[in-house]
Design brief:
Low-confidence stretches: 1-20
Distance between the termini: 38 Å
Helix content: 10-25%
Organism: Megalops atlanticus (Tarpon)
InterPro entries: Methyltransf_16 (IPR019410), SAM-dependent_MTases_sf (IPR029063)
Number of strands: 10
Number of helices: 5
Mean pLDDT: 88
Protein name: EEF1A lysine methyltransferase 3
GO molecular function: methyltransferase activity
Largest sheet: 8 strands, mixed
Shape: globular
Keywords: Methyltransferase, S-adenosyl-L-methionine, Transferase
Length: 224
């Protein structure tokens, strides 16, 4: 991994054919002094929301290794899936809201409950809420410090919806960290090269050559 200085409703697949049978798996991930236990329910119902994706682990390692001061910061995660990224941020002191489509909410709630530290959450217990991009983001506030997303850029039809959601959530100055496997067949490189820069200032902060994962920092361009 190379750190470079400072520098899914109908459009989202659920039954994507990945899992013909339903089974669960529990895994423990360690990031510095933090240990996160994640339950993954592999089923056609959850589809791509079920696994812990490599891009999520990349973002977790970045949060840990860069020693970002998350204490008291207001953080929202998009397409949280298992919740591993947001849960780690909460363990590191952030006030976190985990969001995904409604079918993923029970998995998120289960993982939040399983990861409460013995002494309690440093700032506040993470909250879980459904959020469908492009439809109900305006029901969420805009006073975030960080917006996090891991492997949420994979379906071209959702890119305009994601852009509208990011623009709303970052309106008051939030910084977005987006970690993605750069899948050419899904148009992921084009999203970062051509679509996101139309409204955001973008900086590549981490590149994992072996996993073909890029991590970007993005801030909304000021109009006028």
């Amino acid at each position: 991994m190379n750190f470079e200085g400072d520098h899914e409703k109908c459009l989202f697949p659920v039954d994507d054919g990945l899992f013909a049978d339903t089974f669960s798996e529990e895994s423990v991930y360690r990031f510095g002094g933090e240990e996160v236990m994640i339950s993954q329910v592999f089923s056609a119902n959850l589809g791509v929301a079920a696994p812990v994706w490599d891009a999520a682990l990349c973002l977790c390692r970045y949060l840990e290794q860069q020693s970002l001061d998350l204490k008291g910061k207001r953080v929202i995660e998009l397409g949280a899936g298992t919740g591993i990224v947001g849960i780690l941020a909460a363990r590191l002191g952030a006030e976190v809201t985990l969001t995904d489509l409604p079918h993923a909410v029970p998995q998120l709630e289960k993982n939040v409950l399983a990861n409460m530290p013995p002494s309690g959450w440093p700032s506040a217990a993470p909250t879980v809420a459904p959020l469908s991009w492009g439809l109900d983001q305006t029901q969420f506030p805009r006073d975030w410090d960080l917006v996090l997303g891991a492997d949420i850029v994979y379906l071209a039809d959702t890119y305009p919806l994601l852009m509208d959601t990011l623009a709303h959530l970052c309106r008051d100055g939030a910084t977005a960290y987006l970690s993605s496997k750069m899948r050419g067949e899904h148009g992921t490189p084009g999203f970062y090269a051509d679509i996101l820069p139309q409204r955001f200032n973008l900086q590549l902060v981490c590149h994992d050559l072996a996993q073909n994962i890029n991590l970007y920092r993005a801030t909304l361009r000021r109009e006028g």
